[in-house]
Structure formats: structure tokens, C-alpha cells
């Protein structure tokens, strides 16, 4: 079957439109939770199918721009589908669908037990729309709108259950996000004042006529805004205190996906708007510190959720490293590593939810004997943990090797320092996950310092009827609902597929990186024949 090249024009708005319409429908059906779940899962499956088609079309036909509402660029709202945005849509759609299936299995509650689920599903769908909008945005303000949709939805999800700890973490998260949003707005204002446009392609051409000092200042402001959202050191201190307090599905989707939206924004701004690389050395230093500070923080943790939150911060440094190299191989490695990390980090946080369901705790001081109690749970943890640690032949090893090779090809001293820092971080990551394995799975529970405080069942019982158990109800300790286990295993399988099909996926990331390096492809797709004259019209 041959796909029409014009099909992308029809499909491009759907990853945003479908979840928003589904969110409205689920909000109306707040008293019918079964109908809500059906609509939500159907919408997320549809988004995944559409995203896969967009990736096929983008990889075959190249970059396509869609003008929403009939207004021509650069005035109207532009959605841009290229290999990078389509690849991010596919990976995020897989994660969002798997986490939702897991959440249905865990049994979502937003209040007392007699209150139906009326908020979680619409908010989750709004989050999906915000993520998709951020990946497709062709102008700075629409990117800002995507971030704000994420902020509003994530605050609701983060405070689900309204416990004091969650509200406190949610307030901290919102305050940091508001600061980031204000800085982003300031960056938008500065960019508009300098160029007279917010369309990314149009701005790219006009920035060429702007003094280099002004360009660097604008890029610096945008980097701070995006760096907060991506949790790049020293702007990452908020993350370990915010994510671990949320329910397991919420923590998983936040940790796996939301920081990568910030990384995506850095990639887009660096390659399209500011390709000269004035701040590459700053990015390299930030990448190195992000790696080392994050992994050293993980070593000091005794709670698995906080430990994984610090490893999340640490591995953002690899992506920043690839971006800062400003080479095709560096960008390709960064894109592949982003996709890998979204899948693996989400899987590990879902596994932590299974550990809490099995053992009643995520503290290493209370855990032990899980390998004997649940061999399936042990395997489901071990595979993504080894993947995160970069053990060959997993995708984590492939991604790190690609980045380290790109760094070693650079003649700069900083690049070689980051190669060493990346290697050390990988070894320390392996130490961290091995520590979790030996303490939580391998040793006897009686040897844990607080093992008597953890309620561990002698065996894991797979029980589909547990789907209606509330988040904080520990009466079901020792039972893992099948609908929680199946999506987790499925994500483990997708992570392994990134290894099996690494050649094909890296080929796509190579072509995506080549597109990013040649920004005329993006500019021509959006502006057409206008692109050749816009630089002359930039205000001075």
C-alpha cells in the first residue's frame, strides 16, 4: 500500500486534537469510569497509530509544514513534522499508552473510595495533547502553549490524592515551573523584539542579521528556561523532591517523558535558531556536571524512587553532551539516547510501583528477598536496570558508545573530559542498579535494617480483580494485578526492540540529525520561496 504524501497534512493535527477531544468527552462522562477508560485507551491507541504513520511519511518524504486555520506562515500557527518530531511522537505515544494501561490496572482514585474517577483521565489526555503540541510546534509561542498545558496538567496529576506530601511537592514543582515559564516568556519577548516574528523558520533567517551578542543573550535566556524543564544542572535540584511523591504511573510518565520535552526544545533551538555554537562550551560543562552530580546523588539514596530520580538527572547530561558537540554524529547519538532513556526510565519507575505493590515499600532499608518472592518481578527489573547501566548489547550501551565516539572525534579538551565523565557515570550507574539488585532482590529480608517494617507476601499473586484497588490501600500487598504487569513487560520488550533494531533506529536518527544540521530543509518546508529574502528584513 502506498501512502499519499499529502496524508501528513491530514494526520499532523491529530496527535493534539484527538486527546483534547477525548479529554472533553471523558470529563463529560465523569460518572461513568468504564466509558472514560475505553475512550482514553482508544484515543491513546489512535495517537500511537497516527504518530507511527507520521514517522513513516517523514522518513520517506522529509519535512512537512502544516498551516493551521488557513493562515500562511509566518503569521499563522504552523505545525512541522520532520524526522525528529515524528520520532519523539512515536516514543512518547508508546510510553503514554503503556502508563495508562498500567494506571487502569492499579486503580486510579482522585478522592474517597465512593467518588468516581473524574479528573485523572481527562488531565492525562490534556498532558498527552501538550506533549504532542510541543513536539509539533513551529513557532515559539505555540511551544510555550504546549509547555503551559503540560504545567497545568502535571500539577493536577502530581497532587492526585491531595496528601500533604504531594501538595507540598506539587507547590514546589509549580513554583519552579512558573519561574521557567516567566523566563521563557522573557526569551520570547526578546526574540520578537529582535526579529519581529515568532515563527521558528522565519526567526532563523532573521537572526542571521542580528549582532552576535544579541543572539547569544537570547539563546542564553531560552537555555535557562529549557534547562529548568530538562533538569540540567544547576537547574535540576527541584526534580528529586517533586517526582517521587506522586503515584507510580504519574512518576513514571513525568520521569520518562516530561524532561525530554525540555531536551527536545534545546535541540530545536540550538540547531535551528542558534547553530553558531557560541554557548557549546557552557553546555558541555553543564552536561558534565549534570552527569556527575546526578549519579553521586543517586549513590547517596536509600529510596529507589529518589535514586532513580537522581539517575534521571544524571543521564540528561549525556543528551546535553551530544547536543553541545554540534556535529551530526553527536546529534544522532543524542536523539537515539533520548528515545532509549524515555523507554527505560519509564519502565523502571513502573517496576518501582510493582515493588511497592509486592512489598509495601520502595525503601532499600526495608526490602529484601524479592527475587525469591517474585522471580518475574526480578526479571522485569533486571533487564531495564542493565539497560540503564549500559551493559552490552542493550540500547543503553549502543547509545553511550555512539555519544562517546562522537565526543572522541572532537579534538577539543572539553569533549575528551566529557568522554571520561560519561564513562565514569556509566560505571557508577551500573554500581547504583547493582546495589538496588543486591539489597532489594538478592539478600534475605531478615538482613534488611528495617525488614520487619515491610509487609512482604511470600509470593506474588497475579490477580486481575485488583484493578479497583486504590493507590494508598496496602491491603493488597503481595498481589500484582495483571494489568500492571503486562504494560510493564511490554515496555521492557520495546526497550529490547531498540537493541534488536538498533541499526534501523540509528539510521533514522542519523537522517534526523542530518536534517537538523542543514536547517535550510526546515526553513524551506515552512516558508517556501519566502526564505531567501527574510534575512534582509530583520530589524536592527
Please give a handful of descriptors for the protein shown.
540 residues; NADH_UbQ_OxRdtase; mainly alpha; transmembrane; two-stranded antiparallel sheet; disordered C terminus; cell membrane
What can you see in these coordinates?
The chain has 540 residues and is mostly helical. It has a domain at 279-500. The chain has helices at 7-11, 14-28, 33-61, 83-106, 120-136, 140-158, 164-195, 200-207, 212-230, 239-242, 248-273, 280-299, 304-324, 328-359, 370-373, 375-389, 395-408, 413-442, 482-500, 502-517, 520-527, and strands at 64-68, 77-81, 461-462, 479-480. The strands form two sheets. A two-stranded antiparallel ribbon has the order 1-2. Strand 1 (64-68) and strand 2 form a beta hairpin. Helix 9 runs antiparallel to helix 11. The longest helix is centred in the N-terminal third of the chain and has 32 residues, at 164-195. Belongs to the CPA3 antiporters (TC 2.A.63) subunit D family. This is Na+/H+ antiporter subunit D. Residues 137-421 form the NADH:quinone oxidoreductase/Mrp antiporter transmembrane domain.
Amino acid at each position: 500500500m502506498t501512502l499519499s504524501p499529502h496524508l501528513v497534512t491530514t494526520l499532523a493535527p491529530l496527535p493534539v486534537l484527538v486527546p483534547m477531544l477525548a479529554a472533553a468527552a471523558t470529563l463529560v462522562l465523569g460518572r461513568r469510569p468504564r466509558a472514560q477508560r475505553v475512550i482514553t485507551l482508544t484515543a491513546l491507541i489512535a495517537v500511537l497509530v497516527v504518530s507511527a504513520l507520521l514517522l513513516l511519511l517523514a522518513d520517506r518524504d522529509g519535512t512537512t509544514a502544516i498551516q493551521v486555520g488557513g493562515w500562511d506562515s509566518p503569521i499563522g500557527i504552523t505545525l512541522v513534522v520532520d524526522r525528529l518530531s515524528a520520532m519523539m511522537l512515536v516514543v512518547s505515544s508508546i510510553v503514554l499508552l503503556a502508563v495508562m494501561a498500567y494506571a487502569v490496572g492499579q486503580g486510579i482514585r482522585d478522592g474517597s473510595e465512593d467518588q468516581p474517577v473524574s479528573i485523572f483521565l481527562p488531565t492525562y489526555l490534556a498532558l498527552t495533547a501538550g506533549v504532542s503540541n510541543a513536539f509539533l510546534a513551529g513557532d515559539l509561542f505555540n511551544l510555550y502553549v504546549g509547555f503551559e498545558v503540560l504545567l497545568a496538567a502535571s500539577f493536577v496529576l502530581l497532587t492526585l490524592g491531595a496528601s500533604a506530601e504531594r501538595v507540598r511537592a506539587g507547590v514546589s514543582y509549580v513554583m519552579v515551573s512558573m519561574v521557567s515559564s516567566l523566563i521563557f516568556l522573557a526569551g520570547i519577548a526578546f526574540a520578537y523584539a529582535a526579529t519581529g516574528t515568532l515563527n521558528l523558520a522565519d526567526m532563523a533567517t532573521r537572526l542571521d542579521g542580528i549582532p552576535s551578542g544579541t543572539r547569544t543573550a537570547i539563546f542564553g535566556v531560552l537555555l535557562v528556561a529549557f534547562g529548568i524543564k530538562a533538569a540540567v544542572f544547576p537547574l535540576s535540584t527541584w526534580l528529586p523532591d517533586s517526582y517521587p511523591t506522586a503515584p507510580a504511573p504519574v512518576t513514571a510518565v513525568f520521569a520518562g517523558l516530561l524532561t525530554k520535552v525540555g531536551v527536545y526544545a534545546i535541540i530545536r533551538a540550538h540547531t535551528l535558531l542558534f547553530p553558531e555554537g557560541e554557548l557549546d562550551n557552557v553546555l558541555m560543562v553543564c552536561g558534565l556536571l549534570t552527569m556527575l552530580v546526578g549519579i553521586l546523588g543517586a549513590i547517596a539514596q536509600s529510596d529507589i524512587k529518589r535514586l532513580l530520580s537522581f539517575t534521571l538527572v544524571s543521564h540528561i547530561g549525556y543528551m546535553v553532551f551530544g547536543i553541545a558537540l554540534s556535529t551530526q554524529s553527536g546529534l544522532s547519538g543524542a536523539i537515539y539516547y533520548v528515545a532509549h532513556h524515555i523507554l527505560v526510565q519509564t519502565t523502571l519507575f513502573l517496576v518501582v510501583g510493582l515493588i511497592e505493590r509486592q512489598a509495601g515499600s520502595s525503601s532499600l532499608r526495608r526490602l529484601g528477598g524479592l527475587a525469591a518472592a517474585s522471580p518475574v518481578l526480578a526479571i522485569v527489573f533486571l533487564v531495564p536496570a542493565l539497560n540503564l547501566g549500559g551493559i552490552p548489547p542493550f540500547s543503553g550501551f549502543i547509545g553511550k558508545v555512539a555519544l562517546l565516539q562522537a565526543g572522541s572525534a572532537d579534538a577539543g579538551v572539553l569533549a575528551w573530559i566529557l568522554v571520561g565523565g560519561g564513562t565514569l557515570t556509566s560505571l557508577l550507574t551500573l554500581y547504583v542498579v547493582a546495589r538496588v539488585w543486591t539489597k532489594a532482590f538478592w539478600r534475605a529480608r531478615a538482613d534488611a535494617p528495617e525488614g520487619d517494617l515491610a509487609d512482604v507476601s511470600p509470593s506474588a499473586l497475579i490477580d486481575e480483580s485488583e484493578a479497583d484497588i486504590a493507590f494508598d490501600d496496602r491491603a493488597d500487598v503481595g498481589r500484582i494485578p495483571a494489568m500492571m504487569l503486562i504494560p510493564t513487560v511490554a515496555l521492557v520488550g520495546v526497550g529490547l526492540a531498540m537493541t534488536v533494531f538498533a541499526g534501523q533506529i540509528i539510521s533514522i536518527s542519523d537522517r534526523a540529525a542530518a536534517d537538523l544540521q542543514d536547517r535550510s530543509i526546515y526553513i524551506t518546508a515552512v516558508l517556501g520561496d519566502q526564505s531567501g529574502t527574510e534575512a534582509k528584513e530583520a530589524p536592527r
